[in-house]
Automatic annotation (TrEMBL):
Keywords, ordered alphabetically: Hydrolase, Membrane, Protease, Transmembrane, Transmembrane helix
Hydrolase found in the keyword field: yes
MF annotations from Gene Ontology: endopeptidase activity
Entry superkingdom: Bacteria
Any GO BP annotation: proteolysis
Occurrences of domain CAAX prenyl protease 2/Lysostaphin resistance protein A-like (ranges): 117-232
Organism from which the protein derives: Gordonia humi
Bilayer-crossing regions: 18-37, 43-61, 82-103, 115-132, 152-169, 189-213, 220-242
Protein name in UniProt: Membrane protease YdiL (CAAX protease family)
One Pfam family named in its UniProt record: Rce1-like
């Protein structure tokens, strides 16, 4: 047998180590998300960002390449084209929804009553605390690692489920903090539970779309664009919705 060819036992050990590392990463990022939402320190708001930066360094050190993470230079042009179209479509869609009075109340998010704060969030906090870290973690590292061992459908499905579960903590109290959603689901325990289930289902479906974009284009840029446009446009739309009554 060629000494350069790994034995069956060596391949099994390598695969087991791979899964241990992936599980450790998932536990770490979920712990970071929980810490961020249940503490009120300035530094804890950046803990997911810091975790993502460390995770990228470890992923590269473990053998993942730029192509695995969706940031290979040869994907920039294609990724930029998709990203530009996505941003225009999403922002126009949010603008149209905001212009329709029955839909406007769905944007009434208490976190963005102030327009200056919504703009600061849209261009600073949302990109650096949410969009970039989450896309690097889920569509970059986790998807890239899964694609090395599994089929495309399995890889997209697994990261989508994880992305949906990632939003359990952040969706607690969703119906209380959003007037429009609270009016639909209610604000009691049942309403809060429905808010969590709905948020997990919605973000899980969004994760599947993000994953498809990542595989389709080979680039992380369209995922970043869609994630940012939806969140940032939603924040600004919320502030405008309050002003429009």
């Amino acid at each position: 047998m060629d000494r350069t060819t790994p034995s069956g036992a060596a391949l099994v050990r390598r695969r087991v180590r791979y899964y241990y590392l992936l599980v450790t990463l998932i536990v770490a990022i979920f712990a970071a998300e929980t810490t961020m939402h249940f503490t009120h320190y300035t530094w804890s708001r950046w803990i997911v960002t810091i975790t993502a930066a460390i995770a990228v360094c470890l992923a590269v050190g473990s053998g993942l390449r730029a192509g695995d993470l969706g940031v290979a230079p040869d994907t920039y042009v294609r990724g930029t084209r998709w990203a530009a179209v996505i941003m225009v479509v999403v922002i126009l869609g949010v603008g149209i929804a905001l212009a329709i009075p029955p839909l406007r109340s769905l944007f009434h998010n208490d976190a963005y009553r102030s327009l200056p704060w919504a703009l600061f969030s849209a261009f600073v906090l949302i990109p650096f605390q949410t969009v970039i870290p989450e896309e690097l973690l889920f569509r970059g590292i986790i998807t890239g690692a899964l694609l090395r061992r599994h089929s495309v459908p399995v890889s997209i499905a697994v990261q989508a489920v994880l992305f949906g579960l990632w939003h359990v903590v952040s969706s607690i109290g969703l119906s209380d903090g959003n007037e429009g959603i609270g009016a639909v689901l209610g604000t009691g325990v049942a309403g809060q539970a429905l808010g969590v289930v709905g948020a997990v289902a919605f973000t899980g479906a969004a994760g599947a779309v993000f994953g498809w974009l990542r595989v389709k284009t080979g680039s992380l840029l369209p995922c970043l664009a869609l994630h940012w446009a939806a969140n940032a446009a939603g924040a600004v739309a919320a502030a405008l919705a309050w002003r429009l009554g």
